[in-house]
Design a protein that fits this description.
single chain; 131 residues; Thiol Ester Dehydrase, Chain A
Length: 131
């Protein structure tokens, strides 16, 4: 398996590209699996990517960027701004800024957006600890 093919929930999404965009900044293009079983119940006939999945995708992108496993310690701001329907938005862009604090934790700001229109689906600010 290619190292960029991390998957949430057994193939919920795939990382198509990843790039460092500056010191403590990265971007990734993700392809969502609209046929994933989790979407059958969330919601039948109108799939919506669950918020917890968007948070997990952010965590996994951060882990790829720093090369270490993390655990979310706190989320100061979680904003679900627009419904993410994987039938309508098969591709999303993840943009992430992060920095290590003096205590060794990682402060991160992230957003998931439509790469074409710029519509933001999800934004978060959180603190992660290294595992």
């Amino acid at each position: 398996m290619h190292p960029l093919q991390q998957r949430l929930l057994h193939d919920f999404y795939q990382i198509e590209s990843f790039s460092e965009t500056g010191a403590g900044a990265c971007a990734a293009t993700l392809t969502l699996n609209a046929g994933h079983p989790i979407l059958e119940g969330h919601f039948p006939g109108f799939p919506v990517v669950p918020g917890v999945c968007m948070m997990q995708m952010t965590k996994e992108i951060l882990e790829h960027a720093i090369g270490r496993k993390t655990r979310l310690v706190s989320a100061r701001s979680l904003k679900f701004l627009t419904i993410l329907n994987p039938n309508e938005n098969k591709t999303v862009r993840s943009e992430l800024n992060y920095q290590e604090t003096e205590s060794g934790q990682i402060e991160a700001e992230s957003r998931l957006l439509d790469p074409e229109s710029g519509t933001v689906f999800f934004k978060m600010k959180g603190t992660f600890c290294l595992q």
